[in-house]
Amino acid sequence: MKIGIIGAGNIGGNLTRRLTRLGHEVSVANSRGPATLTALAEETGATPVTVADAARGAELVVVTIPLKNVPDLPSGLFDEAADGFAVLDTGNYYPGRDGRIDAIEDDGLTESRWTEQHIGHPVIKAFNGTYAQDILDKPLPKGDPERMALPVAGDDEAAKKVVRDLIDELGFDTVDAGGIDESWRQQPDTPVYGLRAGVAAVTDALAAASPERPATFRA
User: Fold this and answer.
1) Residues 100/159, Cβ–Cβ less than 8 Å
2) N or C: more exposed end of the chain, with fewer CB within 10 A?
3) CA distance readout (Å), 201 to 38, 148, 152, 188, 213
4) Is the full-model pTM beyond 0.85?
5) Mapping DSSP to helix (H, G, I), strand (E, B) and coil, where does residue 182 land?
6) E-strand spans in 96-176?
7) Rounded CA separation 143/219 (Å)
8) Which DSSP category does 102 fall into?
9) Reported confidence tier of residue 216, pLDDT bands at 50, 70, 90
10) Are 111 and 187 in contact (CB under 8 A)?
């Protein structure tokens, strides 16, 4: 696939590494500009681009930036994306970093629903509770009893399948975590967040989650 990755931090960088190794055509962008991505590009073969160009021709766009920076993404970001493109959101709300977001704190919006409203396109939420190094170190073949599972939430079933198939290719199982309004089940400080486990344990952890946002993740 042609994949655009916006954000070259721990998650974005390691997704770039794995996806290029798997043969996908990856463009990667960050807030500081393509010149700062030379080392990652040389290591992986990915193409460094501006944020405005990251989605051009992309079948999948990965948004992996601090939540506070989502409103700063350029308008028209997806105008030249491929038909039927999907957006993967890895973001989390950390008030200490992002500042208070009233729509999340007071109105009860899930973090990914808030992101959707700002970017104007449905998202699939995954990798938000995954340790970045595990993307490199923990992939296992399908059927391996030690294979980790990742929760995946989203409303667009076709886009969700694209993301789940890609995660399978990366070496992880997936659990359907419901729609974006249910994605609070995988937000920070829930039982599944950071859980290194298989399908059964991830399914149980999602079911055990509480919709009450913990005090540690409130401003």
Assistant:
1) no
2) C
3) 40, 10, 14, 17, 22
4) yes
5) helix
6) 124-125, 149-154, 173-176
7) 42
8) H
9) confident
10) yes
